[in-house]
Amino acid sequence: MSVTLADCRVDTFRSGGKGGQNQNKRETGVRITHEPSGAVGESREERSQLQNKQAAFKRMASSPKFQLWVKRQVGREDLQRAQVERDMWPVNLKTEVRESGTWVER
Hints:
Blueprint: E1 8-13, H1 21-25, E2 29-34, E3 40-43, H2 49-61, H3 64-87, E4 96-99, E5 102-105
Antiparallel strand pairs: 1-2, 2-3, 4-5
GO molecular function, one term: translation release factor activity
Keywords: Methylation
Pfam family, one: RF-1
């Protein structure tokens, strides 16, 4: 399982506060929202948008809401894997073979 920025909505905004022209003119603040889980990470401490984006992604990934979503996803994947393995036992496999012009199930 992997999470990428494609799964997230990235919003940029002006940081505001002290810092003069850079903070008033540039949108350096970043808010990342993970769409499937609803977890949010926000950063506005650094001067660069890239550094804020990395910090916001780390905050979003460490949020309790996101951790719970990951735990549920891993549980679902394990359940699906177990079901596929159970369905693939030789007892459950059926094949159809053509014999004498008709289909026969074995």
